[in-house]
Write a structure and sequence with these properties.
alpha+beta, 4-stranded antiparallel sheet
Length: 295
């Protein structure tokens, strides 16, 4: 279990720091895994070697993945507390171009409920446990001790950022950081229980027929899909990497003969979304797997 960072002791920087690297080093020294953000609150894009996730990606910031790239690639998964990495030549240009600093809440044992409007704040004050709050440009971040899956738009103006997500560093905030409760966890649980819209499973094209089908019976495909769904469903960590590898395995076996239908793809996407993956991440993983296989 990840030990939670005491955010009261992490940094003493104002909103939108003018010295992102020094801010990042201060936060990292306090145990907060950090990464640079460019203008628009966006992470830096992958380097050429990692373009289109060709390297396989970094499963998480605690466990090194197959990627050996030293640059701040892969968004939230690049977050680190290592001062040598933060000061490395590979990160130098990113810090020069950085607009601000972000951190990986899940890597610090934290969850951020991002309230993006006055209505969302009013709802939180009557619904969620009181906790440490950080003012943002449009609302507030409510910070809790503990980790959970991340999800956007769990209700109007409310996002949850914890595992596999990043949040902007703005200030230590005020108040006592409360532990996660069932009320907060239910925000994502309710969203995961909703059936995905049909359009979410149709955004990735199904490969066309490239030859005679080598499978003797439909049972072979059915068994392969069931095993793929089970692999995704039973994943306890490295969800994004597991989804990508599973999609790659399915396509390498069934992608070249035209066996896969939109219903099959929808089944895989549904399993991935139930584990917290967004429709966009599913589509990206599917597209990257097809590209790697030349489909």
């Amino acid at each position: 279990m990840t030990q939670a960072t005491d955010i009261r002791r992490v940094g003493h920087r104002p909103l939108l720091p003018a010295d992102p690297l020094n801010t990042a080093l201060s936060l990292a020294a306090g145990g907060l895994p950090v990464l640079p953000l460019r203008a628009g609150k966006l992470p830096f894009g992958n380097c050429p070697a990692c373009a289109r996730n060709a390297c396989g990606g970094r499963p998480n910031m605690r466990t090194p993945g197959r990627c050996a790239c030293p640059a701040p690639c892969h968004g939230w998964a690049a977050a680190t507390t290592d001062p040598h990495t933060l000061n490395s030549p590979a990160w130098e240009r990113a810090w020069r171009d950085a607009a601000t600093v972000a951190y990986h809440p899940g890597g610090a044992g934290l969850t951020v409920v991002d309230l993006d409007s006055t209505d969302a704040i009013a709802w939180a004050r009557t619904t969620l446990p009181a906790t440490r709050t950080v003012p943002t440009t449009r609302g507030e971040h409510w910070i809790y001790l503990g980790t959970m899956p991340s999800a956007n738009a769990v209700r109007p103006g409310v996002d949850v950022k914890s595992l596999m997500a990043y949040a902007r560093w703005l200030s230590p905030g005020e108040g006592v950081t409360a532990p996660l409760t069932a009320v907060v966890r239910s925000l994502v649980a309710k969203q995961a229980s909703k059936p995905p819209r049909a359009a979410q499973s149709l955004t990735a094209p199904v490969p066309g027929v490239r030859g005679a089908c080598p499978h003797r019976t439909p049972t072979y495909l059915a068994r392969g899909l069931a095993m793929a769904v089970q692999r995704i469903t039973e994943a306890r960590s490295e969800i994004h990497a597991t989804v990508y590898r599973t999609f790659l395995a399915v396509l390498s076996t069934h992608g070249g003969c035209g066996c896969l239908t939109e219903a099959h793809v929808a089944r895989l996407f549904t399993a991935a979304q139930a584990k917290g993956e967004s429709a966009r991440h599913c589509t990206d993983a599917w597209t990257n797997a097809r590209t790697r296989l030349g489909l």
